[in-house]
Amino acid sequence: MATDYDEQRTDVKESQENSLEALKSANSPDARSVVQELDEADTLDGLIPGGEFIAEELVVQVVPQADDEFTCYSCFLVRHRSQKAREKDGHAYCTECEG
User: Are 71 and 78 in contact (CB under 8 A)?
Assistant: First the structure.
């Protein structure tokens, strides 16, 4: 007797039908209820729209540019002099911007 190997096995077919029926019968929320739940959760946070004002001072240590560094006139990043590609009209450009 010839066997058709392309035909789907009966146990796989039954499990697919069962899982499809389970998905159809599942209680899935609609889009409006999800949006409503999210809106309720946002109002419960108690935050003011636009953020909060925090009276903290930001302390940053500024390191001056070293003698062997330059600021690229295109990307405005401080680079090492080995990354200088060219200098035109007194402005230095890095290898990445010239690449």
Answer: yes
